[in-house]
Amino acid sequence: MNIKSFIFSSVLSVGVMLQVAVMANVNSDSKVSREKPSDYVNPKIGTGGHGHTYPGATRPFGMVQLSPDTGIRGWDWCSGYHASDSSIIGFSHTHLSGTGGGDLGDILLMPYIGTTNVNPGTKADPDAGYRSRFEKKDEIAKAGYYSVILKDYGIKAELTTTPRAGFHKYTFPKSKEANIVLDLEHGIGDKSKETFIKVAGENEIEGLRRSQGWAKDQFVYFVAQFSKPIKNVELFIDDELSQDIQYVEGQSTKANIKFKTKKGESVLVKVGISAVSVDNARENLNTEISHWDFEKVVAESDEVWNGRLSAIEVEGNNEDDKEIFYTSMYHAMIVPNLFMDVNHEYRGMDGDIHTAEGFTYYTLFSLWDTFRATHPLYSIVAPENNNDFVKSMLTMYQQSGKLPIWELHGNETGTMIGYHSVPVIVDAILKGQTDANVELAYEAMKSSAMADDRGLYYLQKYGFIPHDEEANSVSKMVEYAFDDWCIAQIAKLLEKEDDYYYFVERAQAYKLLYDEQTSFLRGRDISGVWNPDFDPMAISTLGRGDYTEGNAWHYTFFAPQDVNGLIDLYGGKYGFEKKMDDMWEQEAVNDNEHAHDVTGLIGQYAHGNEPSHHAAYLYNYIGKPWKTQKWVAEIMATQYSTDRDGLSGNEDCGQMSSWYVLSAMGFYPVNPAQGDYIIGTPTFDKVTVNMSNGNQFVIQSNNLSKDNVYIQSAILNGLTFDKSYITHEQIKNGGLMSFKMGLTANRKWAASDQSSPVSTALAVGESMPESLTKLFMPYTVDKSRMFGDERIVELKTYDEGTEIFYTLDGTEPSVESFKYEEPIMLTSSTVLKAIAVKEGFAVSDVFETKFIKSIFKNNSSDAYPKISLTVPLSKPYDLKKEMLLDGMYGGSNFRSGNWAGIQQDDFEATIELEETTLVHSLGINFLECTSAWIFAPLEVEFLVSEDGVNFESVKLEQLEMPDDHTKISVRKFRSGVDKKVKFVRVKAKNPGILPKWHAGAGSGIWMFIDEIIIEG
What we know:
By secondary structure, the chain is an alpha+beta fold. The chain contains 18 helices and 55 strands. Strands 7-8-9-10-19-14-13-12-17 form a 9-stranded antiparallel β-sheet. Strands 49, 50, 51, 52, 53, 54 and 55 form a 7-stranded antiparallel β-sheet that branches. A 6-stranded mixed β-sheet has the order 20-34-35-39-36-37. The radius of gyration is 31 Å and the shape is globular. The chain starts with a helix and ends with a strand. Its cofactor is Ca(2+). This is Alpha-1,2-mannosidase.
């Protein structure tokens, strides 16, 4: 019998008694005796399935999230906890809620009994380390409190927090060796790179964990104070015992802290953290917990949470719905996180230490998710916090030159698409909820929109984003269009007329992607030609394909700034309604094993991911609100529950929950910066919104039941109400909205044009300044750019009735240049430039390409140059190996058909020329798209030979492993040669498996290759 088993069998009865005692005081799992909103919070919801939430303790928007960690690798362990596990590593102080990437898990403590062991062990073998088994029935989780029995030791662990400090209570059975391990190597999907531990007193330890992961450079200083003197401390570097018993530093440091305890004695630990310094961590701790009364802090946490949750009071008989509702409100208010110490100091985006003046500084902005419903919810229940969020974003702009996209602990991760700080800032300005400098805000927003990365260069140059030049082109286009509409509203407010019309035009650019033949938003290339590799059901992810975490069904309906314009593309209401109806009737499939986020499918509506979230509400815009009511009720009933897997997809820092909160109240912000809420169907008999201005807005639903989901009629403040939307002003001013509900749809309620919401990119009654529509540029029918003796070039244009003018000498073409009338014959390397011209249209941009007369005669498999590979290409990217020599270069979209892939294996290609030839230079291109598991090689080598046996290395280039999810680029490797050779060899070393920081850690890495270049 191992030591853990012996301890477990001897102390189990103590653990059971302790659990019974605490159950008498903390009865969070009971469905009865719930008297206040916080009693309904169940943090276990979302800890199973793909919810990615954590069950531990935190305060509203708190700096500390104190929670158990059960796993630190893999997509379903982004929060460090998953309900499928049966053992706990320990309790760390920082966690992500519902994200699709893992990080944090800083400053881990774990109590245990027995001989010193600073190895965490594994899920398969917990006995190898300090990890302990546990049972789900022994967990208690509520707002601000968590407890569990560690079965291997009979230890009861209890956790609570203040905003900046964690409070642990570990109750030990009788033992001679009561230990608490402090593990600074531990982290969730990241790597510690600088740590230290210092014994600062008889009951105090301080230190730092600096790590690299999703957040490239994260600092967490800490001070831990214990309720009784430490008996002994053992310090470790890289798991080796240090001779120094006071201080240790290194990449991985740990401490084993020993106590002498009596039977049933509790050791309490208070831990303050800071991103600034140890001194600040100590000040945070001493300011927020100046005593050792654990139960007092638990009670204070419950009081704080109850105050927050009471902003919305719901009444009705369904206890499960209340549990989902208040847990959703809870999840919506644990992110963003406080990132300012009690003295107002914080670590900025520039890495320097700053002091916040007149506002509270926050971190962790998952804006691709939360701009949709979470921040609009804050505008109702937490406008003061939202003002601080806006000011934090603008401060980040001032320090880094950019508004945050997906910011984490002072680091811009660059994750996802769009610049969705913009709608959050604009909504706060238009609702009068921020005292931020509007001119500064406009400067910051315009700066984001006019950058030249993330596809914006093409948007500014061509008016759209070509799919052959930029991955996820359709998704980026539609989301930029919405953000640009938001910018236009502030330009109008500031009377910047030229900017207003410029951004309004960009807000309508999504229309260029509407393909009438397929009736979808579809990728098109730089010359306007539709992407031939189109399947509306095919799901692509970040960095690949034309869509981001979705497909054409999910993105075709995203034009919240111009819903009426989108409807017009379908020929009006009937065509749009049919397209919407078709979405629900499609097969509910996800064809991409890497698209983990695309879940919660009802047909091709995907509630488990954000792009679909507004779609059910679009029926209101065509006078069919009863269909919105039908599908919203279906989503509410099927995509949420009180189970651990009660979320159909990633919680995503509040967005999944915010959708539920708003929809359960009876409305949703389709355009989250317009100030209108589109009416759906209520869930509760009565909802009372307690506004921060002192007003109450009450939503009363009569004859409501699970089946009676259809609105029969409505009354607002005593007057008949027949609109299918309500404004923020009406809610803010307070009043009573009364719905009469029924079993069957009332197809006449709010069905008229006057009753429907309106969403147009250009304000009603305004018109754009007249301008000519720009033609698409010409293109070559054959995409190959290399040729042997001669080459015939055929030009075409997407627009009918155009003329093409071209040059072959590198000069800019005009109508005075050669007019294209027949295919062009080339016999030497040539730069071709061409324009399209048509009366009544603006001249196209210049098409420019270089044709290279190559030493290669052709690229067929039975002719020279011959290419052989030591390892075959990997399916489904096992294109003909000859395409590596065809002169057609791959862009940043790896699904363009020009990239050949090889997974986990090294790449080695040998090219045999027809005869010994003077070669001046060699080259090869690799794609780097880390989110899609595609990495650049660690090493590239060029070799040459005259006989095919003896090879001479002409260049060896080595790279470092990438360190984040967001790298998308074409990596070009070149080498001079100036030798006569007949054989060329190119080697590339595959990094092997995905690193620890990656969501797919442990899986095989892909290398994508195109093109091998041999210039004579």
